Structure formats: C-alpha cells, structure tokens
Amino acid sequence: MQEDSKYFEEFIVNSIIGEGSEFEGEFKVDGLIRIDGKFKGLIQTNGKVLIGKTGVVDTDIKARIVVSGGHINGNIYASERVILLSTCKLYGDLITPNLILEDGVLFHGKCTVTPNP
The pTM is what? Predict the structure, then answer.
C-alpha cells in the first residue's frame, strides 16, 4: 500500500503557475510544480517540475525529474531524469543520469549524462 501511495503522490500538483501568470523569485517546493506561465528565478524541489507548452522560464532548475514542453533559459540539474518534449526549447546546460529527447526539441547547451552513484 505504501508504494501505491507514493505512486499516486507523484501526480499531485502541489503548486502551479498558470498560463497568463508571472512569478519572479526563489521557488522551493516539496513535490510537483507545474509552470504554464512565466517564471524567473530559481526552482528547487525533491520532486518533479513540469513545464507546459506555454511555459517560459528563465531559471536554473534543481529537481528529481524535469519534463518540459516549454521554453527554458537556464540550466537543469535532475537527480533522476529529464524529458524534453517536441515543443521544448532549452538554452542552457543539463546534468542528469537519464535523458529523453523527442524529435523537434531545440537544445543549445552542454549535456552531461552520468549514472547515479
């Protein structure tokens, strides 16, 4: 039962920056954050960061998992996985043990894929 609970919590959005919204600053969250608006600053979570197709972020992201279909200006440090969807534009470096890129991704930066210790 514990594993089912953890799996369910993986999909609960703790915080959202909706389309048409803007936020600037340092955002630390325990869990999942979804960004469909504009964000500038620093994102840090032990969970997941989801950036929708309309999301525009100017930030460094430190998270367990990052999934993006939006526009990112900044670096990604993911301890588990990064998934860049076909609509994603990433201008920055990324470090992760697992990387998935869909056809159509625009990526300008340095990529380091290292296994977990």
Answer: 0.86
